[in-house]
Design brief:
- This protein is an alpha+beta fold.
- The chain contains 8 helices and 6 strands, in the order αβααββααβαββαα.
- Helix content is 68%, strand content 9%.
- A 4-stranded antiparallel beta sheet has the order 2-3-5-6, with no helix packed on it.
């Protein structure tokens, strides 16, 4: 009884573990967004930029100095304590804007990573669904070829046919089994890729193994790319470069100086009272000033470099916008091609494949055709079905790519 309970407990744990590692598409996307190492890195980068926002009001170090000795007369123990603070007043506002731009840029950078990750997860998920569906088709073909082989072997033993028919049937059966082994390797590779995207310790699997048609959820027009985070990210680079230029320009502006001193003046006589000051008497005051840059060459160089960086960001944005618009148009053409092809297979191709298979099997059983004609019919039927699955996968992948270009992360 104890052995039975232990075995039952272990089986339950293994079943639960297997179920937890099987993902629907939405579950896979959500899990990846929470656990992918690249997304975590992007989140840390955003938080780092937010922490740097505290540097917007960043005063230079306060200068504290001590003057000691004979700076006022013969006494050797006079001392002066001076505190001076430089305030780059013009640079404070520009630095704040730069920090805000950098935060927005890092957030858009994270959105770019998320959009790319969702695209890769969807792509891999439907490649896996295609592989599983193709495997099922191959197993059906294997069953048909197995029947063909048994029939050919029986006919050969009865002396109704020659060795060539039996050998051909055996070769076709072995070829089908070999293709099943190949697609098993492909499935294993795709599951490993999905594991890397989800950043999970266990090799995941998908719950939707039957390849179905995806519904297009975005509009097919050039404005679709306006929501793409990669385009927004390059546009934000212009704002960052413009803010950086203003920071460099503000650094060339004068800085204000304020200071306070506290000192002794040993031996000084008060003209009103005639009292002579000693080491316990302290004299205080303040001073103000302006720090003006004399060498403008370095400032001009940095400002000019910032302007060129801004122009480069504008050119990058324009180039990215045109490239994405071109990619979208190409993707739309591919989508329309696959859509028309998919319609053909559903209306004409698949019904013909079924008819070819049924008629070939019936005619071969009745001895109306030989193995060559029968084999040709099987191949034609299988080829149509395989092309249909390939077209369906291409159709889905074209939609996934269009959604990626439009920045649509829905699943």
């Amino acid at each position: 009884m104890k052995v039975f309970l232990i075995a039952f407990f272990c089986l339950s744990l293994s079943t639960l573990s297997a179920q937890e590692n099987v993902f629907s598409l939405s579950q896979a996307v959500d899990y990846a967004l929470k656990n992918n190492a690249g997304i975590k890195a992007a989140s840390y980068h955003v938080e780092a930029q937010r922490q740097l926002k505290k540097t917007s009001f960043d005063l230079p170090k306060t200068d504290v100095s001590l003057l000691y000795g004979q700076y006022n007369g013969y006494p050797r123990n006079d001392n002066n304590i001076t505190i001076t603070q430089s305030i780059p007043f013009f640079a404070l506002g520009s630095q704040s804007r730069l920090n805000q731009s950098l935060i927005a840029s890092s957030e858009l950078g994270k959105a770019v990573s998320e959009n790319e990750l969702v695209f890769q997860v969807k792509q891999t998920y439907f490649f896996l669904a295609h592989a599983y569906t193709s495997k099922n088709l191959l197993l059906q073909q294997d069953s048909v070829f197995e029947g063909f082989y048994r029939a050919a072997s029986a006919r050969y033993k009865a002396g109704e046919t020659n060795l060539l028919e039996q050998t051909t049937a055996e070769a076709q059966r072995n070829e089908a089994k070999n293709r099943v082994r190949q697609i098993d390797s492909e499935i294993a590779a795709l599951r490993s890729r999905l594991q890397a995207l989800l950043n999970t310790d266990n090799v995941p699997d998908i719950s939707d193994r039957n390849l179905t048609e995806i519904e297009l959820t975005v509009g097919l027009d050039s404005n679709a790319i306006a929501s793409n985070p990669a385009l927004a990210y390059t546009r934000q680079k212009i704002d960052v470069a413009d803010a950086e230029k203003k920071v460099q320009g503000a650094k060339a502006a004068p800085d204000f100086l304020v200071g306070y001193f506290n000192q002794t003046l040993i031996g000084v006589i008060d003209p009103e009272s005639g009292v002579v000051s000693n080491s316990s008497d302290r004299f205080t005051g303040f001073h103000v000033g302006v720090a003006i840059p004399i060498w403008f060459g370095p400032h001009q160089g940095r400002t000019r470099a910032a302007e060129l960086t801004r122009r480069a960001a504008e050119s990058t944005y324009t180039s990215t916008q045109k490239a994405m618009a071109g990619q979208l148009q190409q993707a739309i053409h591919v989508y329309e091609k696959n859509k028309n092809s998919l319609m053909y297979y559903r209306e004409t191709g698949l019904p013909n494949a079924d008819l070819i298979l049924k008629q070939s099997q019936a005619a071969f059983r009745n001895g109306e055709i030989g193995y060559a004609e029968y084999l040709l019919g099987l191949r034609n039927s299988n080829s149509i079905r395989e092309n249909y699955l390939r077209t369906l996968n291409d159709y889905n992948q074209s939609i996934i790519f269009i959604e990626f270009l439009s920045g649509n992360k829905s699943n």
